Amino acid sequence: MQIGLVGLGKMGGNMRERLRTAGHTVVGYDTNPDLSDVASLADLVERLDAPRTVWVMVPAGHATQTVIDQLGGLLKPYDTVVDGGNSRWTDDEKHAKELAAHGIGFVDAGVSGGVWGLQNGYALMVGGEKEHVDRLRPIFEALKPEGPYGFVHAGRVGAGHFSKMVHNGIEYAMMQAYAEGWELLEKVNSVDNVREVFRSWQEGTVIRSWLLDLAVNALDEDEHLQKLKGYAQDSGEGRWTVEAAIDNAVPLPAITASLFARFASRQDDSPQMKMVAALRNQFGGHAVESK
């Protein structure tokens, strides 16, 4: 299958490589000419055969809106745009309506996998009309992990990004729990090998997970996380999860507390946030602040 890909950063660039490895033709565009296959969005569209599919992997908000606006003027009826960035689900209905005015389909795709997606595949949560989603099945199959899991048509437009938002909210709470446990172990005098305690949990325990594996990776690189500052940024999706919970009267005490803990990290050099920062760097390549 042929596809255009806009945004070739940490995830977009790896997605281009994974799709090409699977035999698909990918025309990539990025504002960084060293990464781009073409000089402009117009060139990208020109290189694709109708009906075209363009997958957008740029930051949420203004950047995504700008690309959507440009594609609305470049694409033709029966073409499809996929927003695979971390857009807020409330923007998806707006984008779908704007593109539908030109006869262009829209699919929102929540994508999880970070910098490991090239190797392991990406979990995909997709929203949109069935006809648009079905046409893109070969692309989804190439990007997802091998096996029966890792892809879901979650519902109508907005469902993909809403599902990914909840996924990230859960991620916040899980990282916070590991971070709190790590700090407590580091604090007491009786435990003198915290890293190996974490490692011992990787098999046979109910709290084993990929995040735990990544925590061990981080501790192997810096046993007491002394090189990191206890500061962890939030991408926005944790906030959106809590806001959605308020709007729907759903109690989310653990996720809400984990979000507030990140706010606290900006006031002091929080030991817990060293672990959260290390985990975010391990799974997503997110920047960390060094001392």
UniProtKB/TrEMBL annotation:
Gene3D superfamilies: N-(1-d-carboxylethyl)-l-norvaline Dehydrogenase, domain 2, NAD(P)-binding Rossmann-like Domain. Keywords: Gluconate utilization, Oxidoreductase. It comes from the Bacteria. Residues 160-287 form the 6-phosphogluconate dehydrogenase C-terminal domain. InterPro entries: 6-PGluconate_DH-like_C_sf, 6DGDH_YqeC, 6PGD_dom2, 6PGDH_C, 6PGDH_NADP-bd, HIBADH-related, NAD(P)-bd_dom_sf, Pgluconate_DH. The keyword Heme does not apply. The keyword Oxidoreductase applies. Belongs to the HIBADH-related family. This is Decarboxylating 6-phosphogluconate dehydrogenase. It comes from Streptomyces nigra. The lineage of its organism: Bacteria, Bacillati, Actinomycetota, Actinomycetes, Kitasatosporales.
